[in-house]
């Protein structure tokens, strides 16, 4: 069976600013992601991991290569690829309920069906009782939970997350990881999760893809065979520690390369 | 006083009123005390008397009504034209490239300088008055809205696209609602400017309105009437401002949440 998402030979070169030399953000990259895989992309900042994700989302165009999802070439952004951003991107003029319903309304779904779906996802992310609040009234963690519900309610083929918990405090981040993993274990979805947090990358993933410092390319792919359902206590297991150590070594050399580059 | 430290509601209102009292006290002292000749500046008591005379004997309420109608009429016309154009310019770069240089140029054309031309084209009727206000407001509104829409948070637009929004969907469901409060604020601001244009329009070739009364009073050296007219404009401006703010607060509760 062919992979759900095929990234073939994708690279991205940004034109130089004010006549400067062009900047290669991403070297030609190949990656196949099978259906229902949970892949985390790990790398130092500026390694092109967000660029790669944005290209998959269709928000950026590759300089070479192509992305195909379920056999269809990606030409631009679409509802089949849901995205959760690092910045808080709830629409501030819509209530939590209206935010989650945004994509369904855009599809023109009937009111009753739409409400059922929205309610079920508000339940899943634990935001019942906050339906009629404005995003501003919610904490950062709650806003990102809403953003996840909003992306999932649209029933995308693949869920793309760009450091979604990067701006949250440690405790909230831990809870959010468990919440998202719990949803994935029950619903089974193809997920690409970009992060620079090694522990997060190991805990969430079935495979961790590491990237080199700019110009980015894939450095290694590490399968994570920790059993599901995963509990946060797995983070203190010897298997987890071994994976974390291995990836720390890999990322460390890249982070040093990135730091001395400038 | 600590910088940025908020004060209570009562203190805020009292201080706001206090300055009006100070202003009138200073004015009263200067005129009633005999420091300024009544030929140049009437005292507050004369101003109030002149005001009552205008209202009761001269039918000044009709003048006020005419002026308000001109401001609102010209302003509504400008809004109807400018808001869609401003949104289109902010949203679509080719439209911006087409119109932005001209609108930026036209914005600096003084509306008052068009009065003689407009009289030539539209006579001295109501249409001419409306056109002065229209010309004075329309380019300002277009430009301010276009800038706001063009600066809409890019991540919100991207989020809408990844949720399956179409290009027109992004305009209707992201660009317009995201900028609605700023559009309303722009309109509130420009309405204030429209009041200066209407008086200019009424100073020349008018037979009614607050501006007409003011220019008439000049011939009679009735400074009390002139000041009363100016204060009436200030009061109407204050009331419309208050009304606009109240409506904005209701419509855009999400901003204040």
From TrEMBL, chain A:
CDD domains: ABC_NrtD_SsuB_transporters
Family from the record: Belongs to the ABC transporter superfamily.
Domain (ABC transporter): residue spans on this chain: 5-238
Molecular function, one GO term: ATP binding
SUPFAM superfamilies: P-loop containing nucleoside triphosphate hydrolases
Pfam families in the record: ABC_tran
Keyword NAD: no
Transmembrane segments: none
Domain of life: Bacteria
Name assigned to this protein: NitT/TauT family transport system ATP-binding protein
Keyword vocabulary terms for this entry: ATP-binding, Nucleotide-binding, Transport
From TrEMBL, chain B:
GO biological process: alkanesulfonate transmembrane transport
Record key words, sorted: Cell membrane, Membrane, Transmembrane, Transmembrane helix, Transport
Membrane topology (UniProt): Multi-pass membrane protein
Keyword Transmembrane: yes
Localisation per UniProt entry: Cell membrane
Example of a GO cellular component annotation carried by this entry: plasma membrane
Transmembrane parts of this sequence: 66-92, 104-124, 130-150, 194-215, 221-244
Keyword Membrane tagged: yes
Main location: membrane
Signal peptide: none
Domain annotation ABC transmembrane type-1: ranges: 64-244
Function: Probably part of an ABC transporter complex. Probably responsible for the translocation of the substrate across the membrane.
Family per similarity comment: Belongs to the binding-protein-dependent transport system permease family.
The protein's name in its UniProt record: NitT/TauT family transport system permease protein
Organism encoding this protein: Allorhizobium borbori
Organism classification: Bacteria, Pseudomonadati, Pseudomonadota, Alphaproteobacteria, Hyphomicrobiales
């Amino acid at each position: 069976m062919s992979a759900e998402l095929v990234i073939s030979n994708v690279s991205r070169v940004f034109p130089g600013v004010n006549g400067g030399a062009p900047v290669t953000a991403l070297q030609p990259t190949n990656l196949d992601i099978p259906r229902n895989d949970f892949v985390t992309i790990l790398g130092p900042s500026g390694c092109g991991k967000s660029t790669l994700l944005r290209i998959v989302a269709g928000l950026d165009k590759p300089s070479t290569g192509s992305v195909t999802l379920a056999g269809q070439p990606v030409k631009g952004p679409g509802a089949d690829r849901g995205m959760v951003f690092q910045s808080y991107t709830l629409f501030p003029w819509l209530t939590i309920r209206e935010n989650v319903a945004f994509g369904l309304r855009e599809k023109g779904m009937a009111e009753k069906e739409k409400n059922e779906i929205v309610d079920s996802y508000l339940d899943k992310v634990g935001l019942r009782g906050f339906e009629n609040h404005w995003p501003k009234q919610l904490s950062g963690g709650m806003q990102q939970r809403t953003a996840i519900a909003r992306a999932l309610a649209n029933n995308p083929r693949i869920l793309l997350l760009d450091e979604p918990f990067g701006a949250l405090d440690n405790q909230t981040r831990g809870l959010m990881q468990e919440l998202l993993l719990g949803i994935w274990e029950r619903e089974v979805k193809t997920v690409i999760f970009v992060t620079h947090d090694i522990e997060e990358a190991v805990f969430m993933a079935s495979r961790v893809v590491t990237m080199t410092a700019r110009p980015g390319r894939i450095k290694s792919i590490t399968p994570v065979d920790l059993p599901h359902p995963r509990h946060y206590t797995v983070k203190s297991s010897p298997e987890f520690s071994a994976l974390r150590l291995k990836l720390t070594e890999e990322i460390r050399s890249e982070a040093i390369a990135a730091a001395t580059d400038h | 006083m600590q910088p940025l430290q908020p004060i209570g509601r009562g203190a805020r209102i009292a201080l706001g009123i206090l300055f009006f009292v100070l202003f009138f006290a200073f004015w009263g002292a200067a005129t009633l005390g005999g420091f300024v000749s009544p030929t140049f500046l009437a005292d507050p008591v004369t101003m109030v008397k002149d005001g009552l005379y205008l209202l009761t004997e001269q039918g000044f309420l009709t003048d006020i009504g005419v002026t308000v109608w001109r401001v609102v009429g010209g302003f509504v016309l400008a809004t109807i034209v400018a808001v869609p154009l401003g949104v289109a310019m902010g949203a679509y770069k080719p439209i911006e490239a087409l119109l932005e240089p001209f609108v930026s140029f036209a914005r600096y054309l003084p509306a008052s300088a068009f009065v003689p031309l407009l009289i030539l084209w539209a006579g001295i009727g109501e249409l001419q008055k409306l056109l002065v206000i229209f010309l004075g407001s329309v380019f300002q509104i277009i430009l301010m809205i276009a800038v706001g829409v063009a600066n809409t948070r890019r991540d919100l637009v991207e989020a809408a696209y990844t949720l399956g929004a179409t290009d027109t969907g992004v305009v209707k469901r992201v660009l317009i609602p995201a900028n609605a409060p700023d559009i309303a604020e722009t309109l509130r601001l420009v309405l204030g400017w429209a009041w200066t244009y209407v008086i200019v329009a009424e100073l020349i070739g008018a037979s009614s309105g607050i501006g007409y009364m003011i220019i008439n009073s000049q011939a009679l050296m009735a400074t009390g009437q002139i000041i009363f007219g100016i204060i009436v404009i200030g009061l109407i401006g204050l009331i419309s401002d208050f009304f606009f703010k109240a409506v904005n607060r209701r419509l855009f509760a999400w901003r204040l949440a």
